[in-house]
């Protein structure tokens, strides 16, 4: 079989590898579609501190089970599945309180262990979630990105009374916008980004208003609107955003942070406590795949808006370049593997 491998930072290869055999509790998946994520680009450049090389990247993928381990029911062969990349121990404190995404022994498929940029991949059987045939394969490949949105919204608890502000209209921001509007029905949602084409997609995803990402424009907009945002999600993750969000937020508001920037940011304690704001952070997803699959099955999400490119897996170099260097035209890229 062929696998896309980062042998060391900056070196991407399509290697011929032996067919993997599933362990007792695993299934083998014949991959059909795999999505390109910013974290794949980070691993390629050597900027992900958790990655070990060589590594088959890819943590967003959909396929068909073609072989099972000894402890897995043979009836699972032939199931169409999407893979939750979070592999947890089930024993530590975070796991015991329903937070496997921050397990003390966390492994992420495609980061700590080989992922789905391969013709076949072996994964724990419990991580392979059945996808109904009513959900198209292209859509199923996007369950993982939407699970990120499901995770942050589970903490923020949106309501129909909320006025929401989403920083960043890239893949994650657009997924959050859809969940906030189409699942939770927030009253009013504003999206902000520096790229005009991304703001066009934000409108397609349900945003009521888009504003260029500058301090004065946002402040002027909410002053004219007459209500401050009660719920803010930072899906852009620039160090300056958190303090701006604190200043803009309504008293008793909630702020969600989705990024991994290690650049320090300055915030004012007075601005935070005087409004009694709540700040939540979010990593990966805590068993949100079944929820997202239900949302897709019920027609509440529109993955098509996010998909801008579909490429043969042999064009992975092109895909990584597009994702990193063409943010105006590129949102979600799917790699297609041979049937």
Concise structural overview:
With 339 residues, the chain is of the alpha/beta class. The chain contains eleven helices and 18 strands.
Give the topology.
Elements: E1 2-8, E2 11-16, E3 26-35, H1 38-45, E4 55-56, E5 60-68, E6 80-83, E7 86-87, H2 93-96, E8 107-108, E9 120-124, E10 128-130, H3 137-140, H4 143-156, E11 163-167, H5 171-183, E12 188-193, H6 196-204, E13 209-212, H7 215-225, E14 231-234, H8 241-248, E15 254-257, H9 269-274, E16 278-281, H10 289-297, E17 307-312, H11 316-325, E18 332-336
Parallel strand pairs: 11-12, 11-14, 12-13, 14-15, 15-16, 17-18
Antiparallel strand pairs: 1-2, 1-4, 3-5, 3-9, 3-18, 5-6, 6-10, 7-8
Helix pairs in contact: 4-5, 4-10
**What is the rounded distance between the termini?**
13 Å
**SS field, number of helical segments:** 11
Mean pLDDT: 96
The description of the largest β-sheet is:
7 strands, mixed
- Content of β-strand: 25-35%
Total E-strand runs: 18
DSSP helix fraction:
25-40%
- Overall shape: it is globular
- Alpha-beta classification: alpha/beta
How are helices and strands ordered from N to C? EEEHEEEEHEEEHHEHEHEHEHEHEHEHE
Taking all Cα atoms into account, the compactness measure Rg is 20 Å
What ranges have pLDDT less than 50 throughout 5 or more consecutive residues?
none
Overall description:
The longest helix has 14 residues, at 143-156. This protein is α/β, with parallel strands linked by helices and 339 residues long. It has eleven helices and 18 strands. Strands 3, 5, 6, 9, 10, 17 and 18 form a seven-stranded mixed sheet that branches. A six-stranded parallel sheet has the order 13-12-11-14-15-16, sandwiched between helices. The model has no long low-confidence stretch (mean pLDDT 96). Helices cover 28% and strands 26% of the residues. The chain has helices at residues 38-45, 93-96, 137-140, 143-156, 171-183, 196-204, 215-225, 241-248, 269-274, 289-297, 316-325, and strands spanning 2-8, 11-16, 26-35, 55-56, 60-68, 80-83, 86-87, 107-108, 120-124, 128-130, 163-167, 188-193, 209-212, 231-234, 254-257, 278-281, 307-312, 332-336. It is globular. Helix 4 (143-156) crosses helix 5 (171-183) and helix 4 crosses helix 10.
